[in-house]
C-alpha cells in the first residue's frame, strides 16, 4: 500500500545500471559455510533491526530490556511494509555484496524468503549461539517446512489466515471456506490479493493440502476462485486493509489474519469473529534472519536468542497478539495475570492467555497447514495463475 | 564568444540530469524488455520480442481499461475544472490567489491518504450513500466503493488541479476587451464563449489533458484502493510484475506498450486539435 515511488524509480535505475547489452548475470552466490563465517566475527555493540509496523510496542520494551542485559544498542526501523517491495529494495544491494542498512530483518515464509535462501543471501545460523531457541521453541517451530533444520531463520511470530466475519450483518455461524462461496453474501466477501494466501483457500476448499499441491491442483483451485469472482460474490481483493470495511459493513466476511482481528476487538471494542474453518487454514510465520552483508551478525544473533527468553516472548506477545513460537509463554502470561489480578491489565492478560487465537490448541494445530515451497521457476507459474484471478 | 556559450551552459545541468536519470534507465528498460530468465539465474539478452506479444495478449483488457478510465477521468476533470478556472479567472477579483491556493491545498496531504479517505466517503453506509439509503433514494444493496465509478472519481479528484491550473493560466492572460469586442459584433454570451473564449483557452485545455490523461492512465493507487474485481489498471499489473513477481522483462515490455499507446494518442489528439484551430482561423 504505502509503497514509495522513489523505491520503484530507484529499483529501475539500479536494474538499468546493472544491465549490459548481454542481459543481467546470474546472481546466485554460494552461502559461506557456517563455521567459517562465524569464526572471525566480533560483537560490535550496536545493530540495525528492520521490522514491520506495529510489531513491537512504541516504547520498544523488549529492545530496552535487551540493551540493559547486553549493552547492545538497537536501531529499530519499521521499514518492512510489504515483503515483495522490501525484497526489491535489498536485492540489488545484496547482489553487489553491499550493506543493506540492516543486520537483522523479519520476513514471512513466502516466495521472497525462498528466493533469499536460493540466492544464498542469508547467513547460516550458528545454533550453538541460540540456546534459548533450542530450549524454548515449540516443536513445530524447530524444523520448519520452508527452512529445514532452520539453517537460516528462526520464527519471530506466527499467525493464522482464517475467516473473519461481522456478526452484526451475518446472522448465522460461519464455519467453513465454502461459506465464502455462498451467493447469499454477494458483493460482501473479501479475499486476499496475495497469490499464496488466496491459492491456499482455493486448495483447501477442494480438500487439497497446500504443501503437497501440484500444478493440476492449482488449476482446479484457480477455477473455483474464478467462479467465485465472476459470480460477483467477491467485493475486492485486499492486501491488509480488510479490517475497516469489515467493521463498517462494506464486507460481511473476509479472509483475515488472526492477530489483526484480536487487536481490533481488543482496541476498538468491536465484536468481530475469527474462525479456523473446517476445511483447515494456513499457519504463516514471520522469521528473523541475518543478511550476509550484515555489519553486526554477532549482535543480531544475540538478539534472536534474547527474544526466545520466555519472559521476553510473553511481553512481546502481550502487545502484538500474534502466536509466539514459545509455547511456555502461555504459562508465564497466566502467572502475570494472577499477579495483576483485578486490574485491567490482569483481565486482558487472562483473556489473552486463554485465547486460541494467540495460543492455538493441539486441535487447532491439527487443522493448520503449511504453504507450498517452490523454486523460482515454479513460483512464476503459480503467481501468474493466481494473479490472473486477483488482477482481473 | 562567451555570449554564445552562456545559454548552453545554463541548459547543461538539465540535459545532464535527463540524460543520466531518464535516457539511461529507459535504455536499460528497453534492453531488459527483450531478455529472458528470472531473478535467480539472471536475465539473458535474447532479443525476445515474444515478451511484447505475451504482454499485449495477456493484458490487452487492462491496457484498454486504463486508457478508458484515464479518458473518463480527463473528461470529468474538464467538466469540473473548466468552469472553475473560468470563474476564478474572470470573477475571482482580488481573491484569485486565495482560490488557487485552496485548489492546491489537497496536495499538502499525502496522495495515498487522500485516496484512502475516499473509502470513507464512498462506503456503503458512508457520508454519501448513508443518507441517500435512509431516505430510500438508493436501494439498500447499492454500492459505490470497489467499482469502476469509484476508481474514475478518485482519479478525477486526485488530478483535478492539473487541469484547472493550465486553463486558468490561459484565461487569466486573456484580454477581457476581446469579449467586449465580440459583444459589440452582436455575439450573445454563448456565441462569445464558443467563438472567442473557447478557442483562446484551447492550449490550456490541451496542456491540462496531457497533465491528467497521462498520469491517470498509468496510475495504480486509485485502482488498488478504490477498485474491486475487474477494475485492475495496467499500472497495477506493472507494479505486481516488477515488484512482486520480479518478472522484469514482462513489466518493462508492458511499460513500453503503454508509453507507445499514450504517445500515439497524444500525437493524434494534437493533430486533431491543431486542424480544428486552423479551421477556426479560416471560419
TrEMBL record, chain B:
Domain annotation ABC transmembrane type-1: ranges: 63-267
Localisation per UniProt entry: Cell membrane
One example of a Gene Ontology biological process annotation: transmembrane transport
Protein keywords: Cell membrane, Membrane, Transmembrane, Transmembrane helix, Transport
Annotated transmembrane regions: 12-34, 67-87, 99-121, 141-171, 192-214, 250-270
Gene Ontology CC: plasma membrane
Pfam families per the UniProt record, alphabetical: BPD_transp_1 (PF00528)
Membrane topology term: Multi-pass membrane protein
Entry keyword Transport: yes
Family to which the UniProt record says this protein belongs: Belongs to the binding-protein-dependent transport system permease family. CysTW subfamily.
UniProt name for this protein: Spermidine/putrescine transport system permease protein
Source organism per UniProt: Nocardiopsis aegyptia
